[in-house]
Amino acid sequence: MKQQFEKYTDEDLLVWRTLFDRQIHNLQDKSCKEYLIAIQQMEEILNPNNLPNFVKINNWFETTTKWEIKCVPGLIPVDEFFSLLSKKKFCSSTWLRSLKQLDYLEEPDMFHDIFGHIPLLSQPIFSDFMHEFGKLGAIYSSNEQLLIQLQRLYWFTIEFGLIQQNGLKIYGAGIASSFGESNSSLSVGPQRINFDLEQILNTPFKNDEVQNAYFVIESFEELFDSIVLLTKKWKNHELAIN
After folding, report:
1. Secondary structure (3-state) at 158
2. Per-position DSSP letters for 169-189, written without gaps between them
3. CATH number reported for the structural domain that contains residue 112 in this entry
4. Rounded Cα–Cα distance for residues 77 and 39 (Å)
5. Which single residue of 71, 160, 169, 214 could bond 165 by disulfide (Cβ 3.0 to 4.6 Å)?
């Protein structure tokens, strides 16, 4: 599947510009420094005035962390998703929400996938975490129980994670790409829980409502160390039972 750039409309560009402008200003005092640095570094290929061109973005990544955007029609099977991540291929939709849907979608669109996820993939420590995460998922793609645990880790970190950086900051893509959630996640209402790998692996999530609890990491090194630890733990367990 390829991005059919010629099929985008004026409304698509208006939607992209509206969402980008609104959210980039909203995140200036809310996002982690790594995300803001990445957005600035990618300005030529990721900005409000042009729809994201996956070929240009992929070419840019060739000079950094070697990730590649893989076009998908929407949500794909979990095992396929992990297989692609293990090869440094990040899945993205090519469609955009309408003007009437600016603040709610049932499944991720291109704004969520590109604006939310792609910038941090250019930052080495987060890139390494995502790659190791994908490789672990690919190894255990036939183990339903372990895949459920990995989905929970993905949800509470990559999608809806917060980090301590002179106060609470956003790094999760589900928050970064949402005007409402980027505001509510840092408000006085939600519960904040110190990052705990075992607790996350055993905590179910709901994907159809604003989150009321967020796990908070101290650093991206902590996040990377957690996936290294989990890989060793599962490998040791596998060796023990064999």
Report:
1. helix
2. EE--HHHHT-HHHHHHTTSSS
3. 1.10.800.10
4. 29
5. 169
- Give the chain's domain count: 1
Pairing of the two strands 162-164 and 213-217? parallel
pTM: 0.95
Cα(222)–Cα(122) distance, rounded to whole angstroms?
Answer: 18
Q: How many CB atoms lie within 10 A of CB 8?
A: 17
What does the pLDDT read at residue 135? Answer: 97
Six-digit token string for 188: 């006085």
Domain containing residue 106: 5-241
- pLDDT tens for each residue of 38-54: 999 999 999 999 999 99
What is the spatial distance between Cα 141 and Cα 13, in angstroms, rounded to a whole number? 37
- The answer to whether residues 206 and 230 touch, using CB atoms and an 8 Å cutoff, is no
Q: Which two tokens stand for residue 52?
A: 């994201």
3-state secondary structure of 215: strand
Q: Determine which of 118-127, 143-152, 200-209 has the lowest per-residue pLDDT on average.
A: 200-209
Query: In this predicted structure, what is the pLDDT of residue 237?
Result: 66
Average pLDDT, integer, range 172-176: 97
